[in-house]
């Protein structure tokens, strides 16, 4: 589980995360924030991992006790949207890495549209082909690519800490364009986006301890390592795109080859996880068709002009939707249900998780409240003036946006559930002969 999650986080996007705030904070503060922020943010991912290891059910199925049998479909939308966005961003980075690799090897500038060709072939077409051959091939490839990527990241860290580079890092004057709370917000939002994949992967853990600690240590250590490397590289070169600062730092072409192999592996695993989540809810769909339908919508992200714009869009979108969503799920599982889920009831359309026509209105309301809180505090980051509040911007510099949204959603859900819904979802559940057969068939 450690290698799986470390591999999931050893991607070019993790370098970019460290680059988003390093110049604003300066060398030492950026390193401290990267370490503290990752340790704090990935705690929530480790907590979420426990329920899926314990019960061996997919992430979306484990949401039914909180959101209702049909209400949990929102989680499918969330994981698909995030998967499409990440696939697009990683594909664009794939295009840059491929273009630079060929330039270094051949010494020529290549052909027109070279970037798009490498991005589409390497980021979209190759992962699709691999998944059509073997749906779980991404996990097999990670056994090879992850150790290589990890070793390469450590090598870059050592290179960046050489005497000459270290002197430049220490003497760098922070720009102060953004505050430390913005850095924490970026790290926290990046971690929250990971929650969509926790259940899909942690079903394979053999023990609760292994699943929880493998998730936490794998994500946190990889996040800290790559965030620090990306931040230092950006301070030294002024570039946010990893492929560009790798070129300026005179890293060998092997660096780009390692990046390409690791990125293909990560995209393959992400698409697989998204496809399996959709098939959990709609089991009659064809895996191959679902795989293609998830991968192709990522194409527009390849044509977005700025990597930074695409990256910020995913963080904003993910934090606003996923933060309150997971607050409700965690408060429901740990505090209201005391870590107890009736697995058979999760597959019963007429069971206690039916609520009102399959939807839990309290959970939906709490989700909306959390999103409103996030937009009030962080709406200015979207660039839309109609959701930009001067008071919200002031409060953001102290509170951030994602963590307050999580806390508010959790409190609203806990209070309203205690008042109105306890009898619907926390009572003793008995099966009748009428519905038991259908439930067991669906589980099978």
Question: Major sheet: size, sense and barrel closure?
Answer: none
Q: What name does the CATH topology carry? A: Hydantoin permease
DSSP strand count: 0
Characterize the quaternary organization of these chains.
single chain
| Rg for CA atoms | 22 Å
CATH superfamily: Hydantoin permease
Please provide the ordered H/E string of secondary-structure elements: HHHHHHHHHHHHHHHHHHHHHH
The average pLDDT value, as a whole number, equals 83
Query: What would CATH call the class?
Result: Mainly Alpha
In DSSP terms (H or I, runs of 4 or more residues), the helix count works out at: 22
> Could you list the spans in which at least 5 consecutive residues all have pLDDT below 50?
427-434
> How many domains, in number, for the residues?
1
Quickly give the CATH architecture.
Answer: Orthogonal Bundle
Strand fraction equals under 5%
Measured distance between first and last alpha carbons: 26 Å
Structural class: mainly alpha
Membrane topology: Multi-pass membrane protein
Transmembrane segments: 28-49, 69-95, 115-133, 140-158, 178-198, 210-233, 253-273, 285-307, 313-335, 362-383, 395-416
Subcellular location: Membrane
Protein name: Cytosine permease
Overview of this structure, please?
It is a multi-pass membrane protein. Belongs to the purine-cytosine permease (2.A.39) family. It is found in: Membrane. Its main location: membrane. Keywords: Membrane, Transmembrane, Transmembrane helix. With 444 residues, the protein is mainly alpha-helical. The chain has a single domain (2-318), classed as Orthogonal Bundle (Hydantoin permease). It contains 22 helices and no strands. It has helices at residues 2-9, 12-25, 27-55, 59-62, 64-67, 73-106, 114-133, 137-160, 163-171, 180-193, 195-202, 208-237, 242-248, 253-281, 287-295, 299-302, 307-336, 343-346, 361-378, 390-399, 402-425, 433-443. Helix 6 (73-106) runs antiparallel to helix 14 (253-281) and helix 17 (307-336) packs across helix 19.
